[in-house]
Amino acid sequence: MTNLGKYNEGQLVYERVAFPTDTETVQAALKKIGIDGIRYEEIFISDYDGPMPQLHKHLGEYERIDELNHLACVLSELDEDELAKFEAIMDGGEYTGSVKELINLAQNLDNFDFYSDVHSEEDLGRLYIQDFGAAQVPEHLIDYIDYEAYGRDARINEGGHFAPGGYVQGGHPQRTPQPPAGPDRSRPGNSPNRCSEKSAHRQCDLRVRYRRFCHCALICRRRFFRLSRCAGSIFLPFRSPSCFSFLLFREWTGGGEAAESECFAPDNNPV
Question: Whose C-alpha in 20, 137, 145, 180 is 20 to 30 A from the C-alpha of 263?
Fold first, then answer.
């Protein structure tokens, strides 16, 4: 931990702290580097050291001390295999955007599968076919299988990746629930919270049915214009097949103005 104020004055004053630690040790280190809460208040992390270099790449200079200590506590409870899995997952670059994400990742390692002895697509193909029985292969054909191609397809389908420690697949650790989204600004005065699920499904259904009518109007375009010439002014308000199909659609659904307001107005351009 380094005193930011003194660093800006040209002095490098720091103290090494081993995590996990306790409050008394942190307070003593802060006092030693001159953090008094009056003239000098801020610190930054000038260097990280430890047995997990892969972890240091995802830690910044201005991380919170309490979060770093929490991460160290969680990692201290993992065994050697779990730490190897943790490092392999970090190599993929996901769930490493903050110390909180790293803590969340370390607490959800069970959501991932890690095979430490698999380092290539051929190894992955052999693992799935020979060990897991993913495909039934007669004994006399076992040496004629393209394991590399099978492993490549499996990796792509699973979204897995090869890390220095082995093969990792799976994921999606549980995350902290996000707050509900705000009002839909694209439609003034309208809020998603005010729309019931039933209404949302009905709007979707009306849109689909309207598009089907537009498609039918496109297919019957010639018939429509033939009718408009025969009927004269009767069809004059219907300037396009899209407009005609929308009005027919509104009458068919029995919605009248309600259907129009719940769905949307027809496009200005013909289908």
Answer: 180
- Of residues 141 and 3, the one with the higher pLDDT is 3
User: What is this structure's pTM?
Assistant: 0.59
Largest CA distance in the chain: 97
Distance CA 175, CA 27 (A): 32
Domains of the chain, by residue range, sit at 48-170, 195-262
- Of 182, 156, 150, residue with least CA distance to 169: 156
Q: What DSSP element (H or E) covers 143?
A: none
| pLDDT on residue 66 | 95
Fold classified for 48-170: Arc Repressor Mutant, subunit A (1.10.10)
